[in-house]
Amino acid sequence: MTGIRDWTLRQRVVTLLTVVAVLLIALAGGAVAVAAKNRAHVDAILDKTGPLRVQVQEVLNALLDQETAVRGYAVSGNEADLAPYEAGRKREQDLVVSMQRLLGDYPEIRQELRVVEERAEAWRQAVAVPVITTTQRSGTAAGQALVTGEARERFDEVRASLDQLEYEIFEARQKSAEDVRRTSNLLVVLLIVAVAVVVVAGSMLLVSLDKMVIRPLTGLADQIREVAEGDYQHGITGSGPPEFLRLADDVDAMRRKIAKDLTEVREARERIEWVNSQLQKQAEELTRSNRDLEQFAYVASHDLQEPLRKVASFCQLLQRRYAGQLDERADQYIAFAVDGAQRMQRLINDLLAFSRIGRLTTGFTEVDLNKVMGDVAGQTEAARQYADAELTWDELPVIRGEEPLLTNLLANLVSNSIKFRRPDVPPKVHVSARLVGDEWEISCQDNGIGIEPEFADKIFVIFQRLHAKDAYPGTGIGLAIVKKIAEYHGGRVWVDTDTEVGTAIRFTLPALPEDVEAAAAAADEPAPGPDAAGDGGEPTDAAGTDVPEQTGGRADETDATDEPERAPAGGRTGDMRETVG
Prior knowledge:
Blueprint (H helix, E strand, L loop, with lengths): L8 H68 L6 H20 L4 H32 L1 H7 L2 H80 L13 H62 L1 H18 L5 H29 L8 E4 H11 L1 H7 L2 E4 L4 E4 L1 H17 L8 E9 L2 E8 L31 H11 L4 E3 L8 E7 L2 H12 L57
Parallel strand pairs: 2-4
Antiparallel strand pairs: 1-3, 4-5, 5-7, 6-7
Helix pairs in contact: 1-2, 1-3, 1-4, 1-5, 3-4, 3-5, 5-6, 7-8, 9-11, 11-12
């Protein structure tokens, strides 16, 4: 059997309230019973003893009327004087009947009323009837002779019995009044007891709440406050009812979990700080490495170029002066030397150009890609004329970026498309753009030899070549430059492997906010009808404007990297004119 200490707060409160309710119900029941008795006693006073006392006086008056009428008739002998006698008798009988109805709970008074009736009847038989009869027969003198002292004594006996009856009624009334006072006092006592029960129960409830609720909660709150102030190792213990003990256990479990998480966070922070320190060291190492690379670039662009130019120049001199004078093998060796020196120069220039992308910057501005394509058409004119190539482009957007880098990007793609053409098929290169989300997706589509899907990712690796250098000239860095420029502008580049003929290289560039908003507004408008098309039927771009078709001429198949290139003027990356190797 569990003890009271194991009771829950709900059980304790319900038990206390149940006891108080039982006591109050018992007191209320007792008060109802006492109030009923009190009302009965009051009713006895008002409805029984009070009317009985009045009726006793009326009975006395009726008897007096009878006695007076008899005396008057004995004196006058007039029959009219007997009328009060008869009326008194009738009144007496009615009053007795009425009194008997009120005497159900008073047998003693009923007995006294019977005595009064017997004595009144005895007086009438012994005095009143003989006087009336004698007066009627013998005259008034004979009738008066019968009204003696004995007759008066008999009537006095009737009066004495009436006095006794009245006394009994008065005693009954006094007893009822005493009962009323007693029940009223008892009602007051019960009310006082009920108030005392309520006060005691309220006091016990307050004391119990202070002991079982307020103090445990205050102690628990103090402990939680200590934990909240940072002492996460402070154990939380509870007191009071089982609910508070479980609450304390739950809070302590939460504290342990928080402390564990904080420990893990602290350890993670320490690890992060260590990683940050390592990253700082790596950043410093990268800074030093970048300085070394810049120094290497300077050396490569100045110190290495000079001996290479000398080697290439003297090899070319040997080739021009002694060509045909030595044997065929010597001419071949001299040609190998000249080609190697020139290739070394191109590799150094391409490597310098690649390293400068994003490092030497002029800042982003709004660039019209239509103007950029015009520059690209001019740069690739010779190659297009040589290959009988056709260059077209749709209406292109305005984006934020570095114009020289974007020119370099598109020039590399166009040159690459012209270079990797199919035999006996005039190259066709088309550049288009479409808005996808918040980016412009720009495509460079050609009808060349195409790229196998398994090599779609390898072509963007620096110095990665899919063909022998004698099949297609170049250093293999052009598409790596394209990838780096696209990523520098916040985009990406890939090969569309779903193209059936030729190659489609796509890259993305962030769109201007106004272009995105205009496209969203156009998407919300209803689609135009057939008559909404342009009058001339020219192709239109996404915004609905006429798209002019740009067509290039023909040029010789050359790669910008096939010729030695001078260092960029002013040290700006955007001045490079690289093509795909």
